Amino acid sequence: MHDGNDLDLIDNGPVVVRKRRKGIYILPNLFTLAALFGGFYAIVMAVNGRFELAAVGVFCAMVLDSLDGRVARMTNTQSAFGEQMDSLSDMVSFGAAPALISYVWALKGLGRWGWFAAFVYCACAALRLARFNVNTAVVDKRYFQGLPSPAAAALVAGFIWVCTDLGVKGDAVAWPMFVLAMYAGLTMVTNVPFYSFKDVSMKRSVPFVVIVLIALGIAVINIDPPTVMFGLFVVYGLSGYAVYGWRKAKGVQTSVISTSTDEPDERGLHK
Fold first, then answer.
1. What distance in Å separates the CA atoms of residue 19 and residue 122, rounded to the nearest whole number?
2. The domain 26-250 belongs to what CATH superfamily?
């Protein structure tokens, strides 16, 4: 006899519970897969020498990555699978892809120093993503601990995009690329707080002037997308140190979370 609740009684015997299959939510994972494709596309374009398209691929992945989590929350389709899938996608799009693109474009000419910088960036992206996953429960939602990997990738890809747009070859700016890759990589694994914008609610009503300012911002970006986008992320990439310095000067705790969810007492060690 079947009662409609996944319970079967056979010959008045014990109750057998049929486990429901665990499915995968399609919508948020489609955005994650699209972001992953953006990173893969960037790598392929770099191998083919199309560095401007490689940079665009990273930026597209960044936009798609910012949407998958929001879509999951809006549709109530969050899952542990989606979280792991997002981290793996981020590692490709914002870890491996920028490292490989920068190496093929400019760092290769530096020999050992070139692959050293590319590896440091890639390794720091992996460490940053792993730390983010284990510290999610104790983080101050208003801030990221260290530069988020999409912003780090935007710094590297943005520099390549600007130089390519200006006709500058990678060999001519190999050392600036080295410095930027090291800066972006190491900043990802610092305790420097970067504003996350997670407390900005899309459902909240705003004054009309805000919409006008957004429209003006879009227009400014369209004047020269490579330069404007790179400039914005340079400002963001430096903003964390400004916040850190301000907090230090005011005597406010500079670390936004402890370094381990298993040892919350570590919070007092990072001031």
1. 41
2. CDP-alcohol phosphotransferase transmembrane (TM) domain (1.20.120.1760)
